[in-house]
Design a protein that fits this description.
Layout (H helix, E strand, L loop, with lengths): L38 H28 L6 H28 L5 H21 L2 H24 L1 H4 L4 H16 L3 H9 L3 H29 L6 H12 L9 H6 L14 H7 L15
Helix pairs in contact: 1-2, 1-3, 1-4, 1-8, 3-8, 4-6, 4-7, 4-8, 6-11
């Protein structure tokens, strides 16, 4: 049963340009609580960051494998931009992750990376190319709505250590720029609604389980599990009223609509607004090996 979308969507004109930033994270220590001096949210975002290098390589591979289904030159240009941006995200977050793993948490980081690799290897082995693309489209929705929460809320940005803030702003901008690429390609290839939802829900379940478990391991390493008030404050900031995670739940549900499209929420005006706050990239236009 194919409940694929019939109506056409008009995309805003948003260039998708890979940029190598070369963030240095100067002054940041591996055990700093860089988000609002809060261990819960800091470690949650640290764990998400750990998934990005390998996860985004999976995204790139899934899109590259089926890009030959698209003849339009502009679409192909966007796909190349997506591949280049995701490659840059992997590099920048790898540098950040190396800092996280330096000493105190290196064994936890190693286990988290091993689980990530095992899950992705299983996906590559047992899922078809189309299913891998569907999973990518769903996870790209998650990164896009998290990016939107970051860009729409200067109060969140102000709670980040300046040494880290630019990494997350830059990543949020580029996730917004290319948020429809994998989804549009999936619609071209098949667009089966039930398959899209099944893989979206299962990917979300895996991500929640993974993030919860390894965030808890980080908190235990810091003995925060013995500090109920600290835990309660962090959980409220994440999941309470206007929390970092709770605020994206309505947007998460939007993916379940049969007529969903990533640009139904046109937040492109935020891109230039926030790009002005970033330093000049070390490479404005990067060569893309497509």
């Amino acid at each position: 049963m194919n409940l694929s979308l019939v109506k056409k969507h008009t995309h805003p004109s948003v260039p998708i340009t890979p940029r190598r930033m070369g963030f240095s994270f100067e002054g940041l220590q591996h055990d700093d609580y860089w988000f609002d001096n809060d261990p819960v949210l800091t470690h949650l975002l640290n764990i998400l960051s750990l998934t990005f290098p390998d996860g985004e390589r999976f995204f790139v591979d899934s899109v590259r494998a089926l890009r030959d289904q698209v003849d339009d030159k502009d679409r192909q240009k966007d796909i190349s931009g997506f591949i280049g941006q995701e490659a840059m995200h992997s590099l920048e977050h790898q540098a950040f992750n190396d800092l996280i793993a330096d000493g105190k948490y290196d064994d936890i980081v190693g286990k988290a990376l091993a689980v990530t690799n095992k899950l992705l290897a299983g996906a590559r082995k047992h899922m078809s190319k189309r299913q891998q693309l569907a999973a990518t489209a769903g996870l790209e929705h998650f990164t896009a709505i998290l990016a939107d929460a970051i860009l729409r809320r200067p109060d969140l940005m102000n709670k980040m250590d300046p040494a880290v803030r630019n990494l997350w702003v830059w990543h949020a901008i580029e996730e917004t720029e290319h948020k429809a690429v994998a989804y549009d390609l999936y619609k071209d290839v098949n667009g089966n609604y039930l398959e899209r939802q099944r893989l979206f829900l299962s990917s979300t379940a895996y991500l929640i389980g993974f993030s919860s478990y390894f965030t808890w391991q980080m908190l235990k390493r810091d003995n925060v599990h013995k500090k109920p008030l600290t835990l309660a404050k962090g959980l409220w900031k994440g999941f309470g009223y206007k929390g970092v995670i709770s605020s994206i739940i309505p947007a998460w549900f939007s993916y379940l609509k049969p007529g969903f499209h990533p640009w139904d929420d046109d937040n492109s005006a935020l891109i230039e607004e926030w790009r002005k706050t970033l330093p000049e990239p070390k490479g404005k236009k990067m060569a893309v090996n497509s």
